[in-house]
Amino acid sequence: MSANRRWWVPPDDKDSVSEKLLRKTRESPLVPIGLGGCLVVAAYRIYRLRSRGSTKMSIHLIHTRVAAQACAVGAIMLGAVYTTYSDYIKRMAQDTGEK
């Protein structure tokens, strides 16, 4: 093994993580909404972990995962509906308005 502790250096021409996140946010604003929803659900379920009563830990974790996935899938569906509306329905309305 090498004594060099800094064994990986990112390339200079690549974007940083924060720049990538900002670019993706501008391209698709529902991605951070889905990510935020997942984080909120996970934080709430961790908070509720103490008062879960007699529920097994595995059941509690499954419910947490399902709720977080529901937020992510909901954001994906909203993005798909918005994209369909903006690409197809608006275009069809413009095409019929021009005739």
Could you outline the blueprint of secondary structure elements for this entry?
Blueprint: H1 17-27, H2 30-47, H3 57-98
Helix pairs in contact: 2-3
What does this protein look like?
It is found in: Mitochondrion membrane. The chain crosses the membrane at residues 30-47, 67-85. The chain has 99 residues and is mainly alpha-helical. The chain is built from three helices and no strands. Helices cover 72% and strands 0% of the residues. The longest helix has 42 residues, at 57-98.
Quaternary state of the chains: single chain
Approximate helicity band? over 70%
- The end-to-end span amounts to 72 Å
Large-scale geometry: flat
**Main sheet properties:** none
**Record field, number of beta strands:** 0
Strand content: under 5%
Number of helices: 3
Task: Give me the strand/helix succession.
Answer: HHH
List unreliable stretches of 5+ residues: none
Secondary-structure content class: mainly alpha
Which features does this protein show?
mainly alpha, transmembrane, RCF1, HIG1 hypoxia inducible domain family member 1B, Hypoxia_induced_domain, transmembrane helix, 99 residues
Summarize the structure.
This protein is mainly alpha-helical and 99 residues long. 72% of the residues lie in helices and 0% in strands.
